[in-house]
């Protein structure tokens, strides 16, 4: 129960929001001295270089603008905690003792294989908006936050890996419904539609998610072997060549279905969800669903 918790916080152009998040993390922590934050701030965002960490141990990385996967990976490399949490600057933590609940989850699963996530009062149980992993799981995955992801899909990437574990008969998804990390997203009316939201490419990572299917399969196999090295379910699966979605709309819809539906490593319900979701995103990106590009958060 003494595990250090590392909050990874890429931020840009939102010093007031970032400091609000840090205050809430510190004020609601049961053991503030066992929580650290690693901030990544862009070189051209000087106000984010000197954030008030509200008494938390803080490391700030200042570097060039990069993909979200690169930013989170840089923060991970500089962090020291046994528990790693991906954070946004538009969060407010509402639950006293949130860090104790993470340590309890961590202690209960001694092999370190779990994907925990809080209630964000937006997506809730449906999505691990703010993933919480052990250092051991991060090490097993190798690149838990792939640098190829420009601004979205890291949460879906991790969720997909643990859906594969679930299909293997080892459910390790832990939804902490009573731990509230409120997502103050503009789609909920809790914040303004600012430049950070406006400049994100909503659909830039769709093809990347499809391309990284093999990495998710291999990651799930490594986690399964950690849980039970002798389990038949931990045997490596035969990899398939990735489908490359074509730009033509009808062919693109077909390609997403070809990539997702036959993937027997995943529960059928998750496959059907992904097909429907990618179809909606494809139609939105092509302008067939007015307003979708602004509403979709990735």
| Helical amount | 25-40%
How much strand content do the residues show? 15-25%
What do we call the CATH topology of the domain at 5-198?
A: Spore Coat Polysaccharide Biosynthesis Protein SpsA, Chain A
Distance between the termini: 35 Å
**Average of the residue pLDDT scores:** 92
Which class of secondary structure composition applies to the elements? alpha/beta
Identify the CATH class of the domain at 5-198.
Alpha Beta
* Rg for CA atoms: 19 Å
Shape: globular
CATH architecture of the domain at 5-198: Alpha-Beta Complex
Biggest sheet statistics = 5 strands, mixed
N to C succession of SSEs: EHEEHEEHEEHHEHHHHHH
Can you characterise this structure?
This protein is α/β, with parallel strands linked by helices and 298 residues long. The chain is 39% helix and 16% strand. The radius of gyration is 19 Å and the shape is globular.
Structural topology:
Blueprint: E1 5-11, H1 15-28, E2 35-42, E3 57-63, H2 68-78, E4 83-86, E5 91-93, H3 98-108, E6 115-119, E7 132-134, H4 135-141, H5 154-167, E8 173-183, H6 195-198, H7 206-211, H8 213-227, H9 249-260, H10 268-285, H11 292-295
Parallel strand pairs: 1-2, 1-4, 2-3, 6-8
Antiparallel strand pairs: 4-7, 5-8
What is this structure, in a nutshell?
The chain has 298 residues and is α/β, with parallel strands linked by helices.
Q: How would you describe this structure in keywords?
A:
single chain, 298 residues, alpha/beta, Spore Coat Polysaccharide Biosynthesis Protein SpsA, Chain A, five-stranded mixed sheet, three-stranded mixed sheet, globular
């Amino acid at each position: 129960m003494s595990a250090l918790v590392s909050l990874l916080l890429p931020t840009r152009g939102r010093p007031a929001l970032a400091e609000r998040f840090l205050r809430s993390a510190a004020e609601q922590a049961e053991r503030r001295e066992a929580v650290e934050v690693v901030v990544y701030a862009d070189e051209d965002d000087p106000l984010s270089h000197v954030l008030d960490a509200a008494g938390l141990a803080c490391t700030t990385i200042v570097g060039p603008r990069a993909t979200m996967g690169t930013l989170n990976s840089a923060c991970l490399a500089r962090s020291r905690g046994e528990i790693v949490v991906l954070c946004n600057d538009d969060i407010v933590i509402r639950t006293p003792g949130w860090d104790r609940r993470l340590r309890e989850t961590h202690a209960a699963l001694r092999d370190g294989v779990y994907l925990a996530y809080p209630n964000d009062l937006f997506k809730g149980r449906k999505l691990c908006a703010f993933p919480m992993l052990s250092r051991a799981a991060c090490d097993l995955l190798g690149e838990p936050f792939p640098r190829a992801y420009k601004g979205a899909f890291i949460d879906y990437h991790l969720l997909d890996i643990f859906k594969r574990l679930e299909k293997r008969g080892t459910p390790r998804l832990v939804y902490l419904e009573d731990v509230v990390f409120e997502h103050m997203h503009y789609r909920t009316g809790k914040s303004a539609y600012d430049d950070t939201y406006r400049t994100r490419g909503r659909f830039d990572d769709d093809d990347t998610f499809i391309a990284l299917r093999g990495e998710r399969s291999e990651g799930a196999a490594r986690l399964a072997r950690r849980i039970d090295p002798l389990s038949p379910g931990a045997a490596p699966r035969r990899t398939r060549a990735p489908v490359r979605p074509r730009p033509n709309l009808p062919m693109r819809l077909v390609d997403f279905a070809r990539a997702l539906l036959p993937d027997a490593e995943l529960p059928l319900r998750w496959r059907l969800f992904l097909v429907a979701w990618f179809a909606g995103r494809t139609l939105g990106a092509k302008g067939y669903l007015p307003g979708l590009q602004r509403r979709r958060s990735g």
